[in-house]
């Protein structure tokens, strides 16, 4: 879920830069905030993950707690953005060579 949102975020930033020339960092943040502020990212990830169902490695009852924990979800989102930026720059982020959004664990719904 975080990986998909990272892609959406980077697409928005690219579109804003193309439309607005050299926007300031503050202007980019303000434009992205309604959809990509921490609370908004958590809500969107929660919706996506709730629809996908609980991965088998997450204990019953813990899934909702994990997918709505702001620091955890925000960290996953930030790491996904970083990984995509590294991939675009020719670097290799963790799991970047596997393709298909799959991590070494095999189930990337929660990262």
Beta-strand residue percentage: under 5%
Spatial shape: elongated
Order of helices and strands: HHHHH
Parts with pLDDT < 50 across at least 5 consecutive residues? 92-107
Per DSSP E runs of 2 or more residues, the count of β-strands stands at 0
Q: What radius of gyration results from the CA coordinates? A: 15 Å
Average pLDDT, to the nearest integer? 79
How does the major sheet shape up? none
Measured between the Cα atoms of the first and last residue, the distance is: 7 Å
Number of helices: 5
Give the class from helix and strand content and strand pairing: mainly alpha
Helical residue percent band: 55-70%
Describe the structure.
- The chain is built from five helices and no strands.
- The protein has 111 residues and is an all-alpha fold.
- The longest helix has 19 residues, at 2-20.
- The model is unreliable at 92-107 (pLDDT under 50).
